[in-house]
Amino acid sequence: MDAGTDRGSRAGRLLRQYPLVALTSLMILATVLLPQFGLEEPVRLLASVYAAAVVLVRSVSMIRTLRKGRWGIDLLALMAVASTVAVGEYLAALVVILMLASGEGLEDFAHGRAVRELRSLLDRAPRFAHREMAGPVLDDVPVDAVVPGDVLVVRPSELVPVDGELLSDSASMDESSLTGESLPVERHRGELLLSGSVNGEAAIRMRATATAADSQYSRIIALVEEASASRAPVVRLADRYAVPFTVLALAMAGTAWLLSGDPVRFAQVLVVATPCPLLIAAPVAFLAGTSQAARKGIIIKNTSTLEQLARARTAVFDKTGTLTSGRPVLDRVELASGPGQDNGEGSDAGRLLQLAASAEQFSSHVLASSVIEAAAARNLRLLPVTQATEHATQGVEAVCGGERVVVGKAGLVGATASGFRAAALQSGQLAVYVAVNGTYAGALIMKDPLRADAMDTLATLHRLGIRHTMLLTGDAHATAAHIAREAGIRHVKAECLPADKVSEVAAIAERPVLMVGDGVNDAPVLAAADVGIAMGAKGATAASESADVVVMLDDLSKVALAVAIGKRTLAVALTSIWTGIGASIALMAVAMTGYIPAVTGALLQELVDLATIVNGLRALHGADRLPGMTSSPAGATSREVEYM
């Protein structure tokens, strides 16, 4: 495509997307150039009719808005256009219309910025996968044909086609397009690979654990589509200053007309009072804020959420998968004969873990994979298994290496083994009991540990202005209190059903309220909170769809970063707004004396516009350098837990 065709294409796209901006720009160009050819009167008539038509059309929607009780800053802009047309200052009227239309265009652009940041992912979506067949043969199949259990090969620099388990010893993955993490991530055998991540320099083997539709890449695409369709009703930040600023501007313009007796003075004051900085300042800042968030792996679905994040006073957390890792790990092995200190192969504790993990291969219980992973971490070889029988929700029986093993809950193991005794558990622990050949052998003590970044995240949120924190969970009181105390959360509500969580959030007085969760049962409360934040990297799709913010990296500290981005964005937007108000008042004061012609006043407003745009772009960066984002001494968040 040549340069001329490309310019024509861009012009056509501008005309389609922002027709008022394009047409007004053409009118201004004609108004400046055509009088040189003796066409001043036709141009004056055309420009005046055009400006009057814009005022009439926009007045219809403005009247509807006023009838609904909403007073927008656009009223003052339309009055400025009408007054300049009335006194013959048609060029000034066109400049004001251009600024009004540009501000609205920037708002639309700001709303869709998060979508555009992620749209490029669609062009890179995996379309084919290399599936292993018999022997060394690879079959290239459409990614939609891959099913869980298929063994795939991913060549160097290729995209991982679906979510799956790494079968090779290790892999270096570029996950930046998914999570915002710029450095390569080392993955090891058995770890999850996310679809859409880029393989490093060596071919790897993996086993698919999800279809393409259920994989991470498709979930991101679904979020992009939702963000594109999401248009929450938002009162523009600048509109909150509409009434006092409009009253002040009209008072100053009326006074100037009254004292001078010249209606042109009224138009001159209103032109410099036209709140173009107010119309443009907030959209530019919010555009920059959503862009910064997207680069950090945080999807913000609409720009109004940034202000809610900035003003948040209460943060509520789910426990499992949010404050904790969501995957129980082995804390210790407790032998029936006494404490087991060595879990390695050859020790009694190691043998017990080896037998339990071998039997758990045939269990679908959520703890089974944790037991198997604990054995693998200790290099314990799984034994051949025969005659395996699973007891739903209770445990599994199997013959492992010639020994009959029963693994599961106390009820199952206690009923089949002699010498059974319940393990002494602390808060936050649970036991997987093991019997061997009809005799109680011991217990595997498991715990769901607090995330490594949970304490720092809570401390950072407090420094950023979050006054109250709460834990809402369906777990027992003892477990919830243990996690809350460890994380530094004071208020706890345990044993909650999803409906209970919604009621608790609705009853919170200190608002706005953030709710952070990741599971399907968190979806209702995420939707009910002022700002729902979903841990979307490993969380449930329903949670991500209900949330206002989705953290694509499995990193709780991103919650604090989202709040910091909101604060940075709001501070920049307010600075621009107050700068615009101050500049407009100063220009109005001068215009009252008659020293600023209408066209000159409109051009001066252009300079103020540029200043607000440049200032608004500061929200593109700097959130991670806010004072509250600095670290605090360990343990600073420790406090007494209070039940609610």
Description:
With 644 residues, the chain is of the alpha+beta class. It has four domains: 231 residues, no CATH class; 84 residues, Calcium-transporting ATPase, cytoplasmic transduction domain A (Distorted Sandwich); 135 residues, Rossmann fold; 119 residues, Calcium-transporting ATPase, cytoplasmic domain N (3-Layer(aba) Sandwich), CATH 3.40.1110. 49% of the residues lie in helices and 17% in strands. 46% of the residues are buried.
Radius of gyration: 32 Å
Across the major sheet, the strand order is 10-23-22-21-11-19-20-24
Structural class estimated from helices and strands: alpha+beta
Strand content: 15-25%
| Count of strand segments | 24
| Number of structural domains | 4
Nearest-integer average pLDDT: 80
User: Major β-sheet, in short?
Assistant: 8 strands, mixed
Indicate the overall shape.
elongated
**Count of alpha and pi helical runs:** 23
Give the topology, please:
Blueprint: H1 3-17, H2 19-33, H3 40-67, H4 74-86, H5 90-111, H6 113-123, E1 128-132, E2 138-142, E3 151-154, E4 164-166, E5 170-174, H7 176-179, E6 185-188, E7 192-193, E8 198-199, E9 204-208, H8 216-229, H9 242-260, H10 263-273, H11 276-295, E10 298-300, H12 304-311, E11 314-317, H13 319-323, E12 329-335, E13 338-340, H14 348-360, H15 366-377, E14 385-391, E15 395-400, E16 403-408, H16 410-416, E17 429-436, E18 439-447, H17 454-463, E19 468-472, H18 477-487, E20 491-493, H19 498-507, E21 513-517, H20 523-528, E22 531-535, H21 541-546, E23 549-551, H22 557-591, H23 598-616, E24 642-643
